[in-house]
Amino acid sequence: MTDQGIGARVLRKEDKRFITGKGKYTDDIVQPNQAYAAFVRSPHAHANVKSIDTSAAEAMEGVEAVLNGHQLTGDGIGNIICGWGITSKDGSPMNMGAWSALATDKVRYVGDAVAVVIADSKAQAQAAAEAVMVEYEVLPAVSNVLDAMKDGAPQIHENAPGNQIFDWEIGNKDDTDAALASAHHTTTMDITNNRLSPNPMEPRSAVATFDESEDHYTLYTTSQNPHVARLVLSAFYNVAPEHKLRVIAPDVGGGFGAKIYIYPEEIVCLWASMKTNRSVKWTSTRSEAFLTDAHGRDHVSTATMGFDADNNIVGFKVNTKANLGGYMSLFSSSVPTYLYATLLSGQYNIANVYCDVQTYYTNTVPVDAYRGAGRPEAAYLIERMIETAARELGVDPGELRRQNFVREFPHQTPVIMAYDSGDFAGNLDQAKAAADVAGFPARKEEAARRGKLRGLGYSNYIEACGIAPSAAVGSLGAGVGLWESAEVRVNPVGTIEILTGSHSHGQGHETTFAQLVSERFDLPTDNIQIVHGDTDKVQFGMGTYGSRSGAVGMSAISKALDKVEAKVKKIAAHVLEASEDDIVIEGGEVKVKGTDKAMGWHEVGLSAYTAHNLPEGMEPGLKEGAFYDPTNFTFPAGCYICEVEVDPQTGVTEIVQFTASDDFGTIINPMIVEGQVHGGIAQGIGQAMLEHAVYDDDGQLLSGSYMDYCMPRADDVPSYTVSHHSTTCPGNPLGMKGCGEAGAIGSPPAVINAITDAIGNNNLSMPATPSRVWAALQQVSAAQAAE
Amino acid sequence: MDMSGEYRIAAPIQTVWDAIQDPEILRGAIPGCEELEKTGDTEMAAKVSLKIGPVKAKFAGEVTLKDMVAPNSLKIEGEGKGGIAGFAKGGADVQLVEDGNETVLTYQAEAQVGGKIAQLGSRLIQSTAAKLADKFFANLRDELEES
């Protein structure tokens, strides 16, 4: 291993430009003859659009054009689609309502765009957008899922009666009902998973350029998956055929899922560029981001877990109502189904699991994947249930988990997933030791002397990453394959460019991917460049989400490296007159094992390109590509233990200790992995204690700025104790499982379990704000007073 | 959001009744009112400048008087568009009761806002709307008692 190979704490190559402010983001792109777009957005959650008067706006200085939805659809721009078809229990397809990038007849959430102004400057565009007069016929609106499903609720899409999109199920209902009926003990809970706004530091942005002379479009955009964006823009939205459309996602400042989807604004910028024959730029304001970036979570569930007389779990039954917002976003249907209910067996050996899920339209912004995407909802449900069951059964919550752990692999769950590896007890032991769980009673007593309530909560999460085997997801309704591609180009001077379909928007691919090559060819990472995010450079790729860039993206690179390595050895064997099997690559040289015969690495590159002395029949050059399709999901898992202190006077909760033991399989760069875990846990603590996207009953977004939407800050999170206890993933050549989402998935139940332990009241919902914690404490006092 | 209040006005009931329909008096009483013109028997067009939290906007809208039972009760309805700031609408049920030479005015008002004002100023709307409603009726009383 080189000192920059797999397992090394290599400093991030990309940080030099990020830390010095030299990153190049979409909003930094300035095209010749660039105009600016400003969108006219509905202030109503639900309304018919009666008329749009653009005359005043069109007459304003600097205004190039004011365009509306009828013009857009008239030009053949297609509706925005959901790319994952879900089939209801009765065999019917999901009820996908039409979504035009600019609303034509009806608006369905506050922020729904009805027109766009293109002007010379941003200020002129905004001023003119304000002058567009839209006459609305306001309709009754519905903002939460329980209201949307009621009889007589406002109807949002004509083809979705009762606002229902689908009614889906997984697992065996009869067996699960029977298991629960004969259970010795059952635990039942109503659990809500709070709605969240994603908050990438960089807002969404797009710069579209139509080149009339070439009949060609270029789009710079804040995308986690530029090739998917091009595919969808081309195949479904009819903007341009793929070979006439180049999509570039340059530096992207965080995604968290919100930048997977293709939004109306990017489509409109491309179309407007053609209409005006100018480059068109739009950059979201933070207010627009709150209104229009796809939200996350928003589940309302009822669950029952059954145990036999020996405290073994015998059945788990869940009903979930999920809010998908006013329209179906790109992967919205997969989040509360195949990314959620397939994980409801948790880390446990449960013979019977059944879940049915009903999804509904509401007059809110679309809901789609957000860091974890379905898996945090599953983990929160299971881990609160088992902790609660332990309290009801009067047993140690860690030990109740332990006795129910899956211990043998592969393990087929009743809900599709086949776990391939893991050592759940190993993670539990490591976390318990690091958290000094044995010393907790003494700490609780000491805290009580200071007037504080101290509590401890566990979360033993499991998730599915490495998304995903193409044939498997295809059979479940996915409209795309979820493989990855890579190309390795060795230059004549021996430096290497890796072209990858993965996209880095904070993950550090430029460093970790280079480490993989460094490990293979014993070269410094400085000699390796990672190229990504440009459809003209990289042949194809499915992008980055679902913690897939390691397990899938790097596996594709690894396959391409295999081919390069084989060719290098052939060339060296030929030049050095040795057997291929005796060639080794180390120390910047390609050597004949056990001799002093060697070529410099760069000399092999040069030989390949001069082609003066290659083996008979060998093609010149040194460039290989590979597509890698995963054989299974990967299953990162771990144990998180949270310890809190609550001030009973104020309800203020302080997280005093947070311990993580994760199983991510092979780790390329421990520093980057720890960073991912830290960020993920901070996001999970945000969901558990601070963040909540709130609409009022009229569909107005009340948490529309940082005054009302509370993000975690440095003093809201503790100094984490992070450790690893890994098993190798057998499903991919590198043994990797992925680490991008684990922190956000595993942490919320640990936090809430700790707080409910501290206050002695399980009736607590996220976010556990001081007022909610205080109110829950008052319930305890009132109950005690009544006794 | 709902608000209510009560005022004792040192003026006879008929005077108060007439004043409530008088554009001149309403213009002085509506907080932030810049223009108010009668467009029909019971309709008026208004321009009102308001600041709610961080959002300052000029609303162009209509004021309508409804359900008039002279001189005892009526409903005042208003609806305004603030351009990019969003919209505001609301109404007040007003009751007048004669008490000697004085009049007791009670009102129940409700208001609704949308768009950017709701997004940015939601925490402040209840208190701002209650304050504005109260200020309107206080202004009305002051104008009547001065005249």
Which descriptors would you attach to this protein?
heterodimer, A: 787 residues, alpha+beta, Aldehyde Oxidoreductase, domain 3, Aldehyde Oxidoreductase, domain 4, seven-stranded mixed sheet, five-stranded mixed sheet, 20 helices, B: 147 residues, Alpha-D-Glucose-1,6-Bisphosphate, Chain A, domain 4, seven-stranded antiparallel sheet, 7 strands
Give the topology:
The complex is a heterodimer of chains A (787) and B (147).
Chain A lengths: L14 H5 L14 E8 L5 E7 L1 H4 L4 E6 H6 L31 E2 L5 E7 L2 H10 L1 E6 L6 H4 L15 E8 L1 H9 L3 E9 L11 E7 L4 E6 L4 H10 L9 E4 L15 H13 L2 E5 L2 H7 L6 E9 L5 E11 L29 E8 L14 H19 L3 H8 L6 E2 L5 E2 L4 H12 L4 H10 L3 E10 L7 H6 L8 E7 L5 E5 L8 H13 L6 E5 L16 H28 L6 E4 L2 E4 L5 E3 H10 L12 E6 L8 E10 L6 E11 L6 H20 L31 E4 L17 H18 L10 H17 L1
Parallel strand pairs in A: 1-12, 10-11, 14-15, 20-21, 27-28
Antiparallel strand pairs in A: 1-5, 2-4, 2-6, 3-5, 7-15, 8-13, 9-10, 9-12, 13-14, 16-17, 18-26, 19-20, 19-25, 22-23, 23-24, 26-27
Chain B lengths: L1 E8 L3 H8 L2 H7 L3 E6 L4 E10 L2 E15 L3 E9 L5 E13 L2 E13 L1 H31 L1
Antiparallel strand pairs in B: 1-7, 2-3, 3-4, 4-5, 5-6, 6-7
Helix pairs in contact in B: 2-3
Describe the structure.
- The complex is a heterodimer of chains A (about 775) and B (about 150).
- Chain A is α+β, with helices and mostly antiparallel strands and about 775 residues long.
- In chain A, about 30% of the residues lie in helices and about 20% in strands.
- Chain A folds into 3 domains: about 30-140 and about 205-285, Aldehyde Oxidoreductase, domain 3, CATH 3.90.1170; about 300-465 and about 630-785, Aldehyde Oxidoreductase, domain 4 (2-Layer Sandwich); about 485-630, 2-Layer Sandwich (Aldehyde Oxidoreductase, domain 4), CATH 3.30.365.10.
- Chain B has helices at about 15-20, 25-30, 115-145, and strands spanning about 1-10, 35-40, 45-50, 55-70, 75-80, 85-100, 100-115.
- Chain B has a 7-stranded antiparallel beta sheet, with helices on one face.
- In chain B, helix 2 (about 25-30) crosses helix 3.
- The interface of A and B includes residues 43, 702 and 708 of A.
